[in-house]
Give the backbone structure.
Amino acid sequence: MDFSRSVKKEIVKVSADQYAPKACPSCGNSEITIRTSHKRIISELGNIDTELFIELHVATFECKNCGAKYTPEHVDYPKGYEYSRRIIQTALSMHFQDNVSGNKIAAQLAKYFSVQIPPKTIYSWVNALTEEFMKSEFKTEPEKALEAYKALTIDGTGFSLGNKLLGKKKNVPLASAVKLSNGIYLLTWWE
Ligand SMILES: [Zn+2]
């Protein structure tokens, strides 16, 4: 087996037709036309030797019948993000389920998925998307999400989940801090 490798760049084009509804969402008419369009370049999970990008064609459609204008969004490439949903979900899963720090997540995404990402971007996702992530991950077992909310990791970058998620301040009579093998402290407390 030859383990030498070089990372090649791949760009996959996704046209608006591939994800847009086939009929007008307002009146159901199928005679629709593209008014304006532009392209977005988004990082996607590649693999150990492929750096993958998506060239997403974003179009604003207009209905020929009722005149309604709409810009469909791709579920995998949310508006305002330069990275795919899969990358964000992978990073958040590593953080919350495997207690991996943002710096290590960035290093592992680069190493195994050829995704280049600054750790501060990962921390901004953790701050902005924790609630949505927890709700999706623990849809059937919401009590597990409550446990996860209580776990605060400190890895030397001064990061915390923020007051928004910790809720109202309460006295903590009993707490435990465990240093995990990856150097992260896992702090758990009881109220
Ligand atoms: Zn219409």
In short: Residues 151-169 have pLDDT under 50 and may be disordered. Residues 24, 26-27, 29, 63, 65-66, 68 surround zinc ion (CB under 6 Å).
